[in-house]
Amino acid sequence: MPLHKSSTFADIITALSYTLDLDENRKLYHAWRVAILTYETSALLPGLPAKEQLFYAALLHDIGAIGYSDYVIHSPSVWPEYSVPFLSGHSTRGAAILGSIPRLEAAAEMVLDHHEWWNGAGYPNGKRGPEISPGGMLIRLADTVETIIQEIPTLTKSQLCFILEERIDQEYPKAYFEAIIAALSQNSLFENLHNYVWLPQRIQEIRTELTDETEQGETRIREVQAAIRVFAQIIDTKHQYTAGHSERVAMYAYYLGKACGLDEQKLQNLRIASLLHDAGKIAIPRWILDKPNKLTVYEFKQIRLHPLYSQQIIALISGFEQIAVVAGQHHEWLSGQGYPHGTKGNEIPFLARFVAVADAFDAIITNRSYQKARSVSTALRELAREAGTHFDPEVVRVAQQTFQTDLPRLANFSPLPSNVF
């Protein structure tokens, strides 16, 4: 299915922010709430940047914190932020990540500033007053509001106002405080922040509003490519043993698919499904992913859910419906003994069989928490042993021909070449 690039870029950013908030199977909706608060308040303040950049910056403001044992929102409200080692650097890391995505350079500056305080007591650069970018200042305030609401769900609007009022001219200026209080009073915004049905609906409405304003024509190809690559890299940071895993799986799956004669459209879908196949692992506790010995029944049940989560996440992206199904079934077995659905035989999507072989192959030849890396020949023997029960025999046969003598290298492979979009 050809991609509609203008909607795809925004959907990838929205799905990525949702994935960040899944953090170990807790649908926090932190980023979505911050983005909505930022967007609604921006209409009441002068001198702010383009709404698209502001919205994307708010969605991804904590992207630099992914890969650590505790997500920013989990830290107790009483800690001084500087005492948590990774926090003082997560704004800088987040800005660098966004800066690597064409079209988000302005958003990167806002992410860099979103923990600066009006009085100069913030981080990472101790900026004060007008030195702080207006977008970064607004995201700082929206982040604070959402964190308070998250920690005290029974809080009334008047109680929230009292708490925020005490921080005027310290964390943020009075004009920003007045604007966000006004926004919270409009269209039941304060009440709707707790409505998990309304939140995704409002995110989609904002997406539609921004499409008319900022997405005339098609988004450049390289923007979509960069966003997908960042998405894949974020997925791999969750698990200390899987750095580069998603790109390697995409590479192996691509060469297997090409050897089997897949056309360019199928190869494109295969690459993207492979890059994003483990998105659902964001929702799995790190201690389960990194456990060196045998999993308990409960732990294995958690692991078996990750393809389902992957499918749900990828399905948020326009035009990725088929890709989502492929990613969601990469752990199904031909015999029907796989997961999450127990799909078997020809019911398993053809492309998912390539992802399954590529995923298993990379897992065998790289270090994992539960085993050390083994040789290519050992990996091929294991694949052959499970051909017909676990893996598609034809894909395994092609793997033996393709990888036996000349294993491809990432240095010579582009996960998303421009000519496939």
Biggest sheet features: none
Quaternary structure annotation: single chain
Average of the residue pLDDT scores: 85
Number of strands: 0
Span between N and C termini?
10 Å
Number of helical segments?
A: 20
Structural class: mainly alpha
Strand-residue proportion: under 5%
Any idea what the radius of gyration is? 23 Å
Spell the H/E element sequence: HHHHHHHHHHHHHHHHHHHH
Tell me, briefly, the overall form: elongated
Low-confidence stretches: 1-6, 76-80, 212-219, 417-421
Helical percentage: 40-55%
Give a quick rundown of the structure.
The chain is built from 20 helices and no strands.
SSE layout:
Blueprint: H1 5-22, H2 30-42, H3 51-59, H4 87-99, H5 105-113, H6 134-151, H7 157-165, H8 174-184, H9 189-192, H10 198-214, H11 221-237, H12 245-259, H13 264-276, H14 286-289, H15 297-303, H16 306-314, H17 321-328, H18 350-365, H19 376-385, H20 393-403
Helix pairs in contact: 1-11, 2-3, 2-6, 2-8, 2-10, 3-5, 4-5, 5-6, 7-8, 12-13, 12-18, 12-20, 13-17, 13-18, 16-17, 17-18, 18-19, 19-20
